[in-house]
Design brief:
By secondary structure, this protein is mainly alpha-helical. It contains 10 helices and no strands. The protein folds into 2 domains: 3-85, no CATH class; 111-311, 23S rRNA-intervening sequence (de novo design (two linked rop proteins), Up-down Bundle). Helix content is 62%, strand content 0%.
């Protein structure tokens, strides 16, 4: 790989970590790279999120004719043009631009041996088996959503097992949010008698264990690296004690009760949308209980929109 390409990729990873994966900040950084003709360099990165992939494709298409593929070594720096984030100067330049301060890194473990990963993998496996017995009309909603959120716990733990400290916090935050969302879908499934109380309690207990393991891991990192990096508190509140969560569960019960009435039998699309919006309220409230404030606001905003859709 061209050294300049690798340098730009590492610069982008660092910028992304410093922004705590803020959608707006990441989007702005990608836009600047596109305008400078460098967005193509990120196209084949293996650690980008789905959101980043969509934005990269968009800007690559928009600025395709502006992309620079040759003479990359002549580049001195890339945006944002501040002293802390400047790139290494080219050989032909005598100007010395300071590098960014080295960030603490972690030793990469074998994620398959991590107890948190093993439990997350087992949760996903059990949920897939349970969902085989769900009603066919729930396949396109609850089944897909709970399988997606369960898979996200495992995948986020996998991605989080790397040297970048901030990225580990970010991915574990996503895993914690996905775990709480999975628990919410299980609660909804229990309420509709798709699963038994015993099945719910066993899986919910495993989810609590995963959250506890991830939280303890981050707590140890924060204690070790907290003097260098400003990390959020890894201890998330118990969503079961949150009034809005419990009210949203009651809303789901009422929506399912109402939509089972005879007058709704011919309104399949309406019934599906009402149930979808109501259950999404529960899921978003649960997933919002993670580490970063911006993420909480995003999920709470989605929950408000879903609630309005239910009322309308």
């Amino acid at each position: 790989m061209n050294k300049k390409v690798e340098e730009i990729q590492n610069w982008y990873r660092n910028e992304r970590e410093l922004s705590n994966y803020s959608i707006m900040d990441v989007g702005e950084t990608l836009n600047k790279l596109a305008e400078k003709g460098l967005i193509w360099i990120l196209k084949d990165l293996k650690d980008i999120t789905e959101f980043e992939g969509i934005v990269i494709d968009y800007y690559l298409n928009k600025y395709r004719v502006d992309q620079i593929y040759d003479n990359l070594e002549d580049l001195i720096q890339i945006p944002p043009f501040n002293d802390a984030c400047a790139m290494t100067p080219s050989k032909s330049s005598k100007k010395i631009i300071p590098r960014q301060k080295q960030q603490p890194t972690l030793e990469v473990r074998d994620v398959k041996q991590f107890i948190g990963y093993k439990k997350a993998k087992e949760i996903e496996k059990r949920i897939i088996e349970l969902c085989k017995n769900f009603p066919s009309f729930e396949v396109d909603h609850i089944v897909k959503q709970i399988e997606r959120s369960a898979e996200s716990i495992k995948k986020s733990i996998q991605i989080g097992e790397q040297i970048y400290v901030r990225e580990k916090f970010n991915q574990y935050s996503i895993a914690i949010g996905s775990a709480k969302e999975t628990s919410a879908w299980l609660k909804v499934s229990l309420g509709q008698k798709y699963i038994t109380k015993t099945q719910f309690e066993e899986l919910d207990n495993m989810i609590d264990q995963v959250v506890s393991i991830l939280t303890k891991t981050l707590s140890n990192i924060k204690e070790k690296e907290g003097k260098v990096l400003d990390f959020p508190n890894p201890y998330t509140p118990n969503v079961r004690n949150f009034g809005a969560y419990n009210n949203a569960l009651l809303l789901v019960e009422k929506i399912y009760e109402v939509t089972r009435k005879k007058e709704y039998w011919k309104e399949k699309n309406l019934v599906s949308e009402m149930r979808k919006q109501a259950t999404s309220c529960v899921a978003n409230i649960a997933e919002a209980h993670q580490l970063y404030i911006k993420k909480k606001f995003r999920f709470f905003y989605s929950e408000c929109a879903n609630y309005k859709n239910v009322k309308n």
